[in-house]
Amino acid sequence: MGRAVCRKCWTWHGSGATVCPRCGAPLAAGNAQLPGNPPPPPSTVTPPVQPAAATAARPAATVVSAHRPRRRRYLFIVTGALVLALVATLLVLQWSARAVSTDGTFSIQVPNGWAHFTGRSLPDGATSTIDLMVLLGPISDGVQAHLVVTSGLDQPACRRVVTATSATAATRTTVAGSTALMTDCRTSTVGVEVITVNHTNHAYTIALTGASGQFDRLRAGALYDLLASWRWN
Q1: Domain extent for 5
Q2: Residue among 137, 150, 149 nearest 108 (CA)
Q3: Which long-range contacts (CB under 8 A, 24 or more apart) does 28-36 make?
Q4: Structural domain includes residue 179
Q5: CATH code of the domain in which 140 resides
Q6: Which of 22, 52, 123, 143 gives the lowest tally of CB atoms within 10 Å of its CB?
Q7: How far lies 112's CA from each of 115, 134, 145, in Å?
């Protein structure tokens, strides 16, 4: 065998020696590595390790990508539900503002500033007994605007002022698809618009009363809106 080396004290010895005479440690073959010259690392190639941040980022991106369509569907569903709820609320509020006749044959949208009257004494002194609907409007020049709907061809409002009024010729019109005749009666203080409607072979009379100075505005505003909202049941 060739020269030997002591791995404990790193001293060299001649051939044939098996134990270090200095420290008594067994000797190794002469090709052992000296201190400061460690053996080369194994030649096996280890695959590179991905950085922790990059490794963690991929699953997170995959999760976000997978949940994004679900989140969008959820938002669409919630938005649709809110829109439907809003529409239903508006319809309920709109219907709740409608006045229905006492016989249930028609309903109308109460104009802004008007109220559905259910009492007996009308603003012009008459007593409401067989009226199908009465609406009370704003007061102008000491006269409270009001609208009365009765069954039949009775026209009490127009008859009360006809002796001191000028009445226009009746003009044809329609109320919710039913044929009607419209007559305008006037005095110096009061104006009355009378509309007779024929619906399913039954007559209805609609009479709007208001102060003469504001009557044209009432007829073009509240009365127009009321007739436009008229619905037969």
Answers
A1: 1-34
A2: 149
A3: 28/4, 29/1, 29/2, 29/4, 29/5, 30/2, 30/3, 30/4, 30/5, 32/5, 32/7, 34/10, 35/10
A4: yes
A5: 3.40.1000.10
A6: 52
A7: 8, 15, 13
pTM (two decimals): 0.56
pLDDT tens digits for range 17-73: 777 877 877 877 766 555 555 555 555 555 555 555 544 555 555 555 556 777 777
Are both 111 and 224 inside the same structural domain? Answer: yes
Q: What is the pLDDT of residues 65-121, one digit of tens each?
A: 556 777 777 777 888 888 776 655 554 444 456 899 999 999 999 999 999 988 777
Structural element, H or E, at residue 209: strand 202-211
Residue whose tokens read 């006749």: 101
Positive or negative, the CA dihedral 53, 56, 61, 64 is negative
Length in residues, the chain? 233
Cα gap 13→59, rounded to integer Å: 61
Number of domains in the chain: 3
